[in-house]
Amino acid sequence: MENGKPKTKKRKYSRNGCKECKRRKQKCDEGKPACHQCTRLHKVCIYDLERPIRFENSGYILAVQETEHNRGNRNDTGSKLTGQTPTKMSSKHVSSVPIPNSLTPLSLPEMDFNESIGSLDLQVAKDLLDDANSLVTNIHDLATHELTLDDIIIPEIADMPHLSPESLAPEAILGTVNNRKLANEVIEKYDLQDADKELLTSVCLGPKSYLIFPFASSVESNQVMTVLLQHSKSCPYLLYSLLAISATFQFNLGNEHCDVISRTHISTCLKLLSAAFSPELSENVNKSIWNDIEGLLLTVLVLTTNFAASYKVNKVGILHSWRTHLRGAKDLLLNYILNYKRRNISPGLALAKLWYFAIEMTAGLNSPLGGTLSKVRKSDKPQIKSENRETVEQAQEDELLFLDTGFFDEHSNPEYYRILVQSQLVTTGAHPFNLFLGYTIEYVRAAEELVRGIIFLREHPNNRLSTNQIAKITSLIYQSLQATVIPGVNLKTFEVSDTVQVDIPASLAISEGKRVSWFDLAQQVHTNHLYLKMLITPGMMNLPKTHHLVRELVSTLIESLVMVKKRSSDGSFYLDRNIFDSRAMMIQSPIVQCIELIDNLDDLEKASLYFHGLVELGTGSAAAACERVRKHRINLQQLKFEDISYHDPEVETLPFS
Which of 420, 494, 566, 579 has the fewest other C-beta atoms within 10 Å? Predict the structure, then answer.
């Protein structure tokens, strides 16, 4: 360089330049880690990397770098997630892997948790801090301008770190320390007062902990809370986001004063973020930045879930604003993933990736605005009419992040899979089931294909998918419907034979002597929702709501509410509390989509009981569903079903909120 200006190449375009410059067809100075053009335009600078591994299922390439209801049935046995390690397959379509007769322990190779983080590029660290500071500033603007929060004085916190003093190794998070001990350590470190102690213990050690991770086997062994508590020890902003969401859950249960408490803790959280990620810190970075970025990402996700769980705020304005800030967090997450120096993914990063994917998949399927991660690939785009063909922009960094967060199986993403299994968030059978997301890898493959088509149709509403594309989506949906988690489960009643050994407490509910598989119920409901989406979406099948295929599928989804039963005495319906608990949150979004498609009062009553049950648990987003059920009941009583107008609802709920 001369006079501080980057030296440009003589050729028209740089063959070795970054992807953004190639996409824009502009010269690239090939500067590392970020070229001059990307730095100037505030773009993520990505170069073609060596040693790629291909994700099965596509041409994508990723570069290598207590008791509540019947919770008493979930005995904390301390057992590992179980299953058989699937045989390596040469093709994703191979289905000859034998289904195990029972779920058996998996032995993982020892992981070197003391592995060095590696040399930290100073410029990379500064860029990450700049991204973090920009995100924090934007989020703080949201709170002050849209939530009209009063100025809150930051509480005095002893030794409050600007950059966390410690880097959390996986064994520190996945060790034998239980959540009660971790919570006590957090309380002591920050000298929390009684009111805040109660909020923290409520969300971390009480039934409310299931509202953040419904498939946890017990509050003591809630893996998600373990990660959040460990990071809270060195990230006070994450702690105050947890206090805020705990107050929100209390508010949803009728404690009106907790609304002010929640908003106060949100303000404190944001002020702590501003202090921890101030611009001047970019001149004083160290290796602990990895932990700080993970803490920031987790904080944003907790706050996003908090807003999704708040039903008495301006939902449209708030959620659309948070979509914008999630996009900023997406850029930070991408930059972080590309520059992560450890060979083994940390539990905090793995959880952040899963949480983002849960939000993005829900938005991609249900929101007219779509998500922020998923994009249509130029190399394998949906087929459209030749006379009206459009150019679909390629966005490889978004593709990488979508796949890196969503494809959690061993073949596609071995290190991600490994830490998720060790964190007891993914099973290891022939069809890996993700306890945090509530579905298998087969569902992810089908949903990814469907979302790509939906995104394309959102951007090009006058087009339609070809029969080949519809057939591909249908095939993947069928494979997902055939993916059973508990061997031998009855996919109509979800009952499991007593002869099948099951070692994951969260997977089963027991009622009237019968065992019901919650894992398979969630898998089938989510997959049938994909099928319904394909049937009714304009540009795909675009079937009317009165079509027999739509009617059959809606009926199947409502029949999946096996926790709603009919009394033999008077024919009325009731919630079976032996089955119904917070795990029912994992199927909320698909059932919400069915409300206006229900054509009879009996099925609508089942849906009503289900959503009112969720409200009783503290699920704020279910309150809006109850209101829609009420309005649809009035319409069914006054009009014929075919005369009721239908609009595909915008579902701004998380799988758990």
Answer: 566
